[in-house]
Amino acid sequence: MTRRIILFFGAPGSGKGTQSAWLSTQLGIASLSTGEMLRNQAKQDTPEGRRLKEILANGSLVSDSTVCEVVAARLSRGVPKSGLILDGFPRTLAQAKCLDDLVGKLGLDEPLVLHLDAEPQRLIERLTARRQCPTCRTIYNLRSLPSRGGLQCEMDGTDLVQRDDDKEAVIRRRFTEFESSCGPVIEHYRDRDYYRIPCAGRPDEIASQLLRVVVGESRQVAA
Fold first, then answer.
1. Which residues are catalytic?
2. Which of 216, 37, 207, 192 shows the shortest CA–CA distance to 109?
3. Vertex 55, ends 182 and 185: CA angle to 5°?
4. Which domains does the chain have, with CATH numbers?
5. What pTM did the predictor assign?
């Protein structure tokens, strides 16, 4: 792979955070978080930094133009030869078009798009079964990773709780938000270097599929 950006998409609970982190470690591909880039920019004692700091402090949405400016500034400093995973970008169609422009200006290869796709009901079952220890923050899953202490944390015996964002009504709203914002982005890339990875299997099986795609793409570029 030569200076290629990898994009991950997936609904809440699809495992994109876990899989992108694993791929980054497995192949030594740097991963850049959009949120982290924004927070770093907000620390700068500049008009732009102070304005962004105020936006983040107020909990307001950061505009597409601001997000694109921050990402453009970071990518302009260089993309490693091994490639780069962009975490959390693009989230809107406007951001996707901005990335198209950046890729052209910087002479980068077409982004490799990995879409972790799963049935909503399966994700709802997975997320509503998640439980967390309020003391040590350890996360369990009643279905796939139960605590050896039953409904108590196996580390400290504290009663496990269900987070508000793991309740079904909240999850369904998050799915709706994902479809409205990221659905058009996925369609934007669907006829390009796009791979749909079904998420019906175990995490290690999904990881193996991702690895085959990325390594296969790397060989094609090298050839």
1. 16, 91, 130, 163, 174
2. 192
3. 10
4. 5-222 (3.40.50.300)
5. 0.77
